[in-house]
Amino acid sequence: MQGVKIVCRGWAFAFSILPDGRRQILSFLLPGDFASTAAVLNERVGISLQALTEVCYCDYDRGDLIDCVRSDSKVFEKFSELCNTERNEANEMVTDLGRRTANQRVARLILALMARLQERNQVRDGSFEFPLRQQHIADATGLTPVHVSRVFSAFRQAGMLAVKGRSLTVQNEAELQRISSER
Amino acid sequence: MQGVKIVCRGWAFAFSILPDGRRQILSFLLPGDFASTAAVLNERVGISLQALTEVCYCDYDRGDLIDCVRSDSKVFEKFSELCNTERNEANEMVTDLGRRTANQRVARLILALMARLQERNQVRDGSFEFPLRQQHIADATGLTPVHVSRVFSAFRQAGMLAVKGRSLTVQNEAELQRISSER
DNA sequence: CGGAAACTTGATCGAATTCAAATAAGGTGG
DNA sequence: CCACCTTATTTGAATTCGATCAAGTTTCCG
User: Fold this and answer.
1) What 8-state DSSP symbol labels residue A72?
2) How confident is the prediction for chain B on average, in pLDDT?
3) Cβ neighbours of residue B16 under 8 Å, at least 6 residues apart?
4) Within a 10 A sphere around the Cβ of B169, how many other Cβ atoms?
C-alpha cells in the first residue's frame, strides 16, 4: 500500500495532464510540504507528481497519520490549517488564471514562491534557489514558454529580477508587487 | 460565532474579488453542498458567498461538526471524501482556466453542473434548472459576458443546447463532450 | 570540443476583449 | 393586460494579448 509522502529536501510539483500531452502544474512542493494533504485523507488522487531537483522525502503510513490527526486535537488543528492553506492557494491560482494578465501571473508566482521560501529561511538578500525551467513556469501560469521568456526579459530589463544559474534574485520587490496587483 | 452552512435548497456560489471589482467564481453550491468544506476546518475563509436563487440552508455549530468528524470514523471517511471532491474540482478548474479554450470551458461547466444535478436527480430529459446569468458563467470561466454570449449562440445554433427562461436543455451531450475533450 | 536542451527574438496569426449600439426579456405599477 | 423601465443578451467592428512558427543564440555537460 502506498504511503503519504512529505518532502524533506528539494523541489517537486503536482500536475495534471491533458489528452494532448500538455500539462497544467497545480502546485509546487517545497521542503516540508505534504505531497498534497489530500493524499492523507484519500488514497487515490488523480494527479501526478514529479521531482524538480533531487528530492528526499519521508513516507508515512496513511492509517497512522489519520489516527494521529483524529486523536490529537492539536494535530487536527494543524492539519486543518494546512488543508486550508492549500485550498486558498488553489483559489488564488484559479483567480490568477481566470482574471489576470501574463505579467501579473508570472510576477505573482515568483512572489508567492519567494514568500514560501522566506518562511523556510531560504532567501538571502532577495536571492533563492530557483530550479524551474521556463517550461514549468509556463505550465503553472497557463502560458507558452515563448511568452514566459518575453515576460522574464521584460522584468529583467526593468531591473526587477535577475537569474543566474539555478538561482533567482528579486531586485525590486515593490515593483513586482505593484504589477501583481495593478488593475 | 459564525456557524457552518449547508445548502438545503437553491443555488449559491463562492467567489473572490479583485481590487478592480471584477470577480472570479470559485465554485457553485447546489442543494446538499457544504458552503465550503474548508469552513468546517477553519473559521476564517477568504472568500465570499452569494445566493443565486432563494436559498434555504442549515447552520451547524463548527465545534460540534469537528467533534463529530473526529469521533466517528464513518463520518471522518465521508468528510475526507468531500474534501477530496472539492479539491479535485478546484484542480479541474485550474486546468480548464490554464489550458482550455473558451468553448471547452463553457461546455465543461455545463456538463459538470449537469452531472452534479444528475446525482441529485434534478435532470429530466437533459433539462434542468439553470439560474445562472451569462455574467456568472463569464466569472466562472474567466471570460467576458460578451464572449460567453457568442459561445452560447454557437452552441445553440449547432443544436447542442437550448435555454428557456431559467431552464437549460442539453440536446446533444455527446457533441458537448467531444468539444470538451478535443485537443 | 561537440551536441542537446533551454532560451531568445522577430514576424505573423488568431482567440478573446473592448467598445458601442441595438434588441430582447422581465418585472412593476397603473 | 399593457406601457414603461431596467437588466440581459446579441451583434458588429476594431483592437490587443498571447500563441504559433521559425530561426538564431546561449548554456550546460559529457
Assistant:
1) -
2) 89
3) A91, A92, A95, B23, B24, B26, B46, B47, B48
4) 16
Nucleotide nearest to B133 (CA to C1'): D8
Alpha helices (H) along B19-169: 38-41, 62-71, 73-99, 102-119, 134-141, 145-157
Does domain B4-97 fall into CATH 3.40.50.1820?
Answer: no
- DSSP single-letter state for residue B53: S
Q: What percent of chain B has pLDDT over 70?
A: 92
User: Using the beta-carbon criterion (under 8 Å), do A84 and B20 form an inter-chain contact?
Assistant: no
**Which DSSP letter does residue B44 get?**
-
The DSSP annotation for A91-121 comes to HHHHHHHHH--HHHHHHHHHHHHHHHHHHTT
Packing angle between helix A73-99 and helix A102-119, nearest 10 degrees?
Answer: 160
Q: What is the three-class DSSP state of B124?
A: strand
- B78 to each of A86, B118, B148, how far by Cα in Å? 20, 20, 36
CA atoms in the 13 A half-sphere facing the CB of B157: 6
Kindly state whether B76 is in contact with chain A, defined as any CB-CB distance less than 8 angstroms. Answer: yes
pTM above 0.85, yes or no: yes
Can you tell me the mean pLDDT for B118-142? 96
Work out the minimum CA distance from A85 to partner chain B, whole angstroms.
Answer: 10
Residue that has been written with the C-alpha cell 445548502 in this structure: B7
Q: What cell was used for A157?
A: 530589463
Q: Please tell me if residue A87 touches chain B, with a CB cutoff of 8 Å.
A: yes
Query: A82 with A40: CB under 8 angstroms?
Result: no
Q: How confident is the model at residue A2 (pLDDT cuts 50, 70, 90)?
A: low
Q: What is the pLDDT of residue A9?
A: 85
Cell match 479535485: residue?
A: B88
B90·A94 Cβ contact <8 A: yes
Q: Average of pLDDT values for B163-175?
A: 95
Q: Which fold has domain B101-180?
A: Arc Repressor Mutant, subunit A (1.10.10)
Query: pLDDT tens digits for B7-22?
Result: 878 899 999 999 999 9
Point out the residue nearest to D9 (C-alpha to C1'). Answer: B149
For chain A, the domains span: 4-97, 101-180
How far, in Å, CA of B58 to CA of B65, rounded? 13
